[in-house]
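User: Modeling request: complex.
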Amino acid sequence: MLVEMKSIRKVFGEVVALNDVDFSIEKGRIHGVLGENGAGKTTLMNILYGYYQMDRGEIKFDGRSVKIHSPQDAIRLGIGMVHQLSTLVPEFTAVENIILGTEGRRLSFSIGGERAGILKLCEEVGLSFPLQVKVRELPAGIKQKIEIIRALYRGARLIILDEPTTFLVESEFEQLLKSVKKLIDQGITVIFITHKIREVLKSCDIVTVLRKGKIEGQIDRSEMDREKLVKMMFIEKDIKITESALPRVQLPDCPRSASPVLSVQNLSVEAGEKGVGVYKVSFDLYGGEILGLASVSGNGVKELVRALIHPSLVKEGDIRVKGESIRGLSTLEVFARGVSFTPEERVQEGILIEGTIKENVLLGHHGEQRFLRHNLFINWEEAGKAARKTIDEYGVYTPGEDFLIKRLSGGNIQKVIIGRAFVSPICLLVTHNPTVGLDISSVEFIFRKLVEIRGHGDAVLWVNEDLDELMMLSDRIAVLHRGELKGIFQRDQFDKYQIGLAMIGA
Amino acid sequence: MAITPKAAVSARSGGARTLSRALPGIKVYGIALSVSFGVIAVISAALGYSVPEVLRTLVFSSFRSFAGLKSTIKICIPLLFTTYAFFIPAKMRFYNVGAWGQMLIGGAMAAVVALLLADWNLPPVVLIPLLLLTAILAGAALAWVAAYLKAQYDINPIVSTIMLNFVAIQSVSLICTARGFMDPTGGHPQTKLLPSNATLGFVAGIPYSILLAALTILLVSVLINRTRLGYEINAIGYNPVAAQSYGIDFRKTLMLSFCIGGALAGLGGGLEILNIHNRLLVGFGDISGLEFGALGILATLVVGENPMAVPVSCFLWSVLLVGADRLQRTMQVPVELVFLLQAMIVLLIVITRAKLSAKR
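Assistant: Request completed. Predicted assembly structure:
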């Protein structure tokens, strides 16, 4: 055994994240760690990598008992980790990123010499990428390769990939898999953390399933099948699961409104700090319709969504809501027209982190007459009522509306954000990756909510990187690549491969 | 009846939670104060002073005589205004370190207008509000410059407000030595006395400005907790990205919070001139060699978030300042010792608070 973790226990506040977990890894295999969000996969691996300290338990590496107090300790042992979000310095090149932190052992070093070493390493494991381009300009798949090489360069013999496919499209995943297989040929061990059964079936030699902080079981490749993994992941839930481990929600027939609720005409938006802008995009979205917007991160979707709620960013073209142009309106005026919005980054963009639930529910509605007195004072009684209504209707698990929102779980925070979108009547919901990082019952809740809005004859613009989700619940899927509209697929033409190709611009 | 999860959670949230919430606070202040006073005791013992005498003088000078209490209040009033000048923008996580300059320019402009209008003989009910309004506008204008530079050119307000402090300091010197304004008989750069219709009086030795200070406490508390602007200021402080995504105008809120802060500092300066000094003089924004702007930052740092805690904090700082002054005069203990104490208290409170919150 390369690694043995015994009776690992970790408690966060009142939540038992890992409850006496035993976990061991054999050398030279792709070892999957499967479980839904919140099952404890990442926590377990973060303990192995020294990010968290376990409350109790023992770790053996290569048969020796070891104490891992920090990632430095883990790196010294030969453990490397590639996180879900890139940890590369965007302004540095690949070479600079790879040698960052290793050059301190000597007084002087030559980048040229290091580069040669890196090239050799890349050749050995069969990975290639541009070494001299600033990382910020590279796509997610390449960044991952750089992170893998960075770990190898530090002498890693065990590499942990934390949800590596989150920002990859299908073809990039295939490529990653090829690279991983080459690593295995070199005698390197790979841990593959994921919540997608399909990916496990495709790639892993062995899989360990975690559920609610406990090991549910371990299965070898020869005995793996979908039904078995589904059962282990979601044992007690009465939620129907689809092929791609999503909660199964039906999209009933629903009449489409005669005129579009949202009409985007020839829209161009200036590029933001990173990524690209939007170029001459046109589409209509009708009431009683869910329009999926599929795109790889950094292809202008963020800019498009921002322009919808901050019309001052529109450079050219027009956005009409129920036939009226919103150009020149402020965000609050756009909201007053019945547009509602949930942002991509739940915490960073979505909530007032240090505020209470009440303050958060009010956000975006603080200009509405019902929440104001004499246009100057906040009507906190009304705000409290709205917050209590959100808590009750959406089942937010909290002692009350004056509770700090940062103390809630991700799923509960998302419920507040979604609930806030419906505090006042709406005709259009713009929602960006609403299900990322949520457990299966929260995902099901959000799916049902989207279908319900559509059933009311309102419109949903659903921005999502997960094609499986989009294909299940969209009436149409529009694809954006490098800021341009690559086409709109009708529901009867949905084809994962074709849409995936459009997403990477092929 | 089944207990819902909600009820179960709130059942626990009674008195026990109030106490467990208050405890870290008590711990922070307890550790900081006892360590700081301990160090002061050790140093003063090493310097050969009687430790109980030093501590008693330091803490109780304000309360042993009415004169002591009066001087405490006189320090507390301007300090309250400069503290709010820092406190309000700090709610947005932007730092107005220019309260000193805003106070100076407010006082200076009030004095200039009073001297220019000296021959008009306006009745006090007209003149005094006019002068205070001048002070408010002058302070707000100086703060506006910093806010505008941030909003338009993304210049850090810490830098611009420090620079504007120099502008204000030199303006005061310039006015105090300008022909027509200067008092040629004074040994110190200062202007002529203001006409009597431009000055405020005392009641039982306490300046009338205390009324405006009390009103300010009330208004700031309403502003922060009850108004839409207060909500927007808080929201940006909680998370500027989310606040802007949901339609809060960052620039407008920044400008307003800085201008309100500057206005309060300016008003504080105007009141100092009209009520205490009755003329403009160089150094009116200092107390025992410390300036009121920096003291306001200290007073804010120790209270954290609650606007109603500001007056308490200001009063306690004033107590220490009066004690320091008394130590120097009666026991010849260097006043620097007390400044050391103050710096230590603030540092320790900030450090222990950070440590405790990191643990949670």
